Amino acid sequence: MASLPTSLALGFGQLFDGAVLRVLLKSIGVTLIAFVLVTIAGWYALDWALARYAIGDGLFAGAGAVREALALVLALLGLWIVWRVVAMAVVQFFAEDVVLAVERRHYPDEASAARHLPFGEQMANAMRSAGRALVANIIAAPIALVLLFTGVGTFAVFWLVNAVLLGRELQDMVWLRYRQECSQAAPLARGQRFLLGGVIAAMLAVPFVNFLAPVLGAASATHLVHRSNRKGRAS
Questions:
Q1: Are 221 and 189 in contact (CB under 8 A)?
Q2: What span, in angstroms and rounded, lies between the C-alpha atoms of 80 and 205?
Q3: By the 8 A CB rule, do 129 and 89 touch?
Q4: What letter would DSSP give residue 60?
Q5: Which residues of 105-127 are buried (b: 16+ CB within 10 A; e: fewer)?
Q6: From CA 95, how far away is CA 46, in angstroms rounded?
Q7: What is d(CA 58, CA 66) in angstroms, rounded to the nearest whole number?
Q8: 182-191: long-range pairs with CB below 8 Å, 24+
Q9: Phi and psi dihedrals of 177, rounded to 5?
Q10: 162-218 per-position pLDDT tens digit
């Protein structure tokens, strides 16, 4: 557990190195494009659904404007819920570059022993991760809505769900490059995964900081996994 703050500090210290910075800028660009497309698509879809089933143009004067505004608010709310899903799915495609940059600088022996993940495997991992996160957040949404009046309950529900999911995803970004068989034990304890995921999940909820969070998570997870492995071998 004590190595988590160190891993986060080391990960942050490498964010602006050339290789990691390039991934950071690419992931921010792709994420912004994805969010614009998702927002526009969601806006039109919700506007169509509201016009068909709830607020038709003939219902009252100005119904169209009210419906469009409501559709935009709902689209933005939905986007906030799936922000982590989209951002992490984007970073999954660049994760190997982040992990490799950290390993080459700090863990050269481990870098030489890693296997390259084929594009198909990376795509499958990203889709499974996004699917798990989307389903979990949809299931958590009704509970979060019930707790909306508490002020912090909604945030706490989404944070808890995403902390668990993120801890696993960030570990796997590194571990899957070394795992030889499906039965091989994961390198991080559940507590370590949860704390790492919790820190990154909290950062994903903060505007502007959320752009850095996925890449920082991948870099920090690399340190945490390798430091834990070295400690395990030494004991």
A1: no
A2: 9
A3: yes
A4: S
A5: ebbeebbeebeebeeeebeebbe
A6: 33
A7: 12
A8: 187/225, 187/228, 187/229, 187/232, 188/224, 188/225, 188/228, 189/228, 191/1
A9: -80, -10
A10: 899 999 889 988 888 877 654 466 778 889 999 999 999 999 888 788 888 889 999
